[in-house]
## 1
Amino acid sequence: MPRGTSQLLSLLHVLTVCTVIVGEPFYQHRDHRDQLKYRQGRTKGGNMVTSRDEAEAVLDKYGYLRCKLTKTNPLQIFRTDFSSIHNLKLQEEGGRSTCNEEHVAKALREYQRNYNLPETGELDEDTRVLMSSSRCGNKDKESESSTLNTTSVAKDKKDNPGSNPQREHSGRHRGGLRDSNKSAPPTQRLWRRSTSNSHLMKVLVGKPNKSSLKRRRRHVQEYIDKLKEIDPKILNPLTVSERKKRSVIVKAKHTGGPLPFWKSRDENGQMINKEVIRWRLLTNGYSTRIPVEDQRATIDLAFRMWSEVIPPKFVEDTGGDIRDVDIEIAFGRGNHQNCPHKFDGSGGEIAHSWKAGNMHFDDEENFKSIRSYSPEGIYLLRVAVHEIGHVLGLAHRNKSYSIMYAIYHGFEMQQPEFELGWEDRKAIQKIYGVCKGHFDTLFDWVRKRPDNQFIYNTYFFRQNRYWMYENHANRTRYGDPLYIAREWDGVPDGIDAYIHVWYFTDTTMANEAYFFKGESFYRYDNDNDKVFEGYPMKISEGFPAKEGSEDRIPDNLDAVFFDLRDKNIYFFKDEYVYVYDPKEPEETRGCCVRKMKIVDEYPMNDGEKPLPATVDAVYYSYKDKAMYFFKDEEFWRNTRFHPRIKQTKNALEYRGKWYEKWFDICDVTDME
């Protein structure tokens, strides 16, 4: 037997023995305390790139070298790809690399350009340290369209992971920054360079603040509280059904290339999305690092952050058949969950995922919840959001402020305050579309800042929730929607309309906010943030008919609008609008100044798409100084409206779909 072949067989024998030894452990105790003996420390700096050969291996792994590289470090075989065995065999048998110095220099320059480093083509200090940083193992050169080519992944498949086309992502994370004697590590300098434009960062990222983190932590705590109520036995025993996960195969006829299995096309080629995507943290895949309830709550929050910007709902499924679960999630060490790609211990790969529905986290990493105030550890939430992005079809981005940035490093990346940036939102919406729907009502809530400047945020109400749209940032507030009952004391769900009556006369000053539902209305106390005592009142009592008049303000209104021009209140019901003057003396006040058909009171400009006979909402935008009409998903603007013009002339023009102007107003699914 040739000497090279003999050595190769010996090496394969060692690999087989190692695989048996470090296979997925069976947990005898629910708290996994029997597995403490398996925890092993790793040599710090063991994943540092120190040589040219190691740098070439990095370039080859992440898609920068197009030539054949056979100079492989045998130690890497134990850590990462079994495909390296093939390369080693070529080397033993005299195979030659097709990579020359020019190829490597070109790949280095491309790598440096991708990470905004000086394009030297040399393995300088900045490049070496960046290559040694924690990072995700998906190839940097894949486009988002190319990462949508997964059609099936079998959990029990043991193909060569190095050549497996289904392997969409393996979160390879190298050791942290070390042995630099400069005042700031090169990767820290890179971070500052890539985020130096503060205005651009505010637009793209939005600069999440402490209130955003507070809402996120509240969501986690509330999820845990509900979890303990409905599932007191948090650590459920392993169920048989979880051992029988089928392969996920797309069987859809389409012409645009394979897609994630919950996004496909019907027989006619029409795009169809699964409205509800189910996920499960496997009971044989709990982490030993943080409490199970924190794991589940954190992963739920990670899914929610994506559902705040795209239509699909993500629901935790704990009791159904595992074959009905779309995304399986597990923690593990070494060989885990029959996964073809093994973890390499603390300080290396921290997670990997496939768009066919699997997400795995290395349980030897020091994960922590956003409820933790410890300075040590990795926030599981940030890693989970990144991995979900891959599962949903996103590739890596070379912008360090993106959640899909491949490298995990820097002070900012290790903070609990983070949100999906503008580019991340738009990238995922290219795949899944934008959120749509209609609203019960919407309005601008006016408040004054300490510098006496006014802020005009827009509030969208639908059923039992609401969104606050931050007009200055052109997006919804992070963490929305919130529950009406919890945030608006005394205001009922499913309201019909809202108005802010705000005027001054020689004898009267009014600054009153009202909500309407059914036959009642509620006056809201903005100073004390609750409904006034004595409310609700009947609409017929608060806005009575004139003596002798047959007309009255109807119940179950469609919309209400306070017109700043004539200081009258306009009540919309079916095809009519009722005009009410609140400035009249109480003894003569009543309905109505006039009662008109909506199409007569608000005529259309010539050639415009007409306003429907009924409306959902009418509101004044302080930001745009405009009057808008909403019906279903469309809106119109009153082109002859201006608050300083006293004449009440109207002419409407069609403006299109509301979601083309107001972004990311999405429903989410919370634990019930």
## 2
Amino acid sequence: MGRVDLVERADGAYDQRAALKRLGLVAPSRVKRFLRERQILASLRHPGIARLLDGGVEGGAPYLVMEYVEGEPITTYADAHGLRLRDRLTLFLQVCDAVTYAHRRLVVHRDLKPSNVLVSERAEEDGSAVAHVTLLDFGVARLLDADLDEPVTAEGFGAPLTPGYASPEQIDGGEITTATDVWSLGVLLYELVTGRLPFPTHSRDAWVDAIRRAAPTLPSEVAKTASGTEPPPTDARRLRGDLDAICLAALQSEPENRYVGAADLAADLRRYLDGLPVDARRPSAWYRVRRFAGRHKAAVAAALAAVVVGAAGTAFYTVRLAAERDLAQAARTEAVETATFLEDVLSAASPFSTQRRDTLRVADVLAGAAREVGTMGSAPARQAHLYTVIGRTFDELGRVAEADSLLRLALGRAAFGSERWNEAATALGEVLVKGDSSQVAESVDLYRQVLTDREARLPETDPMLANAHSSLAFGLWMADDYPRAESLAARAVALHRGASPPDSVGFANALKVYGDALETTQKNDAAEAIFVEMLAVRRVVYGPEHPSVPIGLNSFAGFLRNLERYD
């Protein structure tokens, strides 16, 4: 469209660098579009959008003076810095937030692509560097004025667009809406998580034909089948399911079938990162239960320990359950002595309760209970226990901030190295392990301290020692340290087999962690045997109709699907 130069202020008033954009050809249609860009940019004030500093006309040709952004295209930056999936999505959410700002001002970008999304590192007050996204070039944007007599449409096939990123309606001269940018954001997201574009671009005809007649390959399938010379930036198993659905929802051929705007796409991605059900998938009750349990594997298992009942099965597992019922009864007796008034509240708060009350009201009651616990200054050990119980329940309700705060209070009240401290540390680890890379690292450190303490004072037959191995294995697995995760998970399973009294819930959880670790390290035969055993244990522990059984079935099915054993 023209020429862009890096310029410096020449009047000596102050030092400033900028980007000067000038038209190459001064055809009337181009001048009109250029002046429209100047008007649009002048109305946008957002830290994620390059600012318009000045503008005018010289020699009959218009020009813009824009903020100079020294950065890399978002895909280049993500690959060069080896960003993990969560960090890539966090960066992409900055893009969505900037586009959302423009959408709310009735502006559609229409040319979102990596070269128009630059990432630079900005220094924080503490000296650390934070990646910052800036959007460039609203040169082909259109104001969506609700008062227009006719719909805003693309100027046909010759309209300014970028092959690979333009939407079907831009090609076909259809109506341009915020869903147009959603398509381009979907392409950008797909490229960020797979390293490839969703449709072929070796020729314009092939690209146009592909987006008109077919849905793109699932991102998880692209990552799974990538060649060794071009490894995908993320693991296929982390894309499978929710992220597949989110990408495909953004890349629907019909605009009305996509997310309405960037805000809706961003909201679904944030739900994914928080471990919540996403709108891109069918909101079945089973799916929502599975997402809940996926966020709180260990917490769900602990909450269910008090309601474990005998089930038909082998004599081996029946004997295990008998011993565990005695252990659960002892735990219930202690709970009555320390927190009788909390039991009804906590059981009603659990999503697995048959008499569940409104969770918002229950959360308010929990907050009041936490304040009351704060008055027990003379009983720090009891405070630690109750803060842990309430914190776990907040975590199960998806109230991560409250859970984190209370569990850290529990750590402060409990004596370091005591079992109360270990309980609080494990519960806090279960909250942190679902967060970003620094939080995962903190959870691993907590799990390691718990394991070190329990190894020093517990016999190998104590199931709490086995659970400590399992927790640390899961933390390392989430930190992508797969070999050590596999080794610790194997040790956890071995300890559970010899535990006395047995902990069948912990054993079922350890088998799941071990199976996942074996799958990740490509030990498929061993992984299959562990998954089969995990299902057998869950059916006996929980009964065949309990949600934990189909959760296990789903994990096993995903494993078999990766082996292409589709039947």
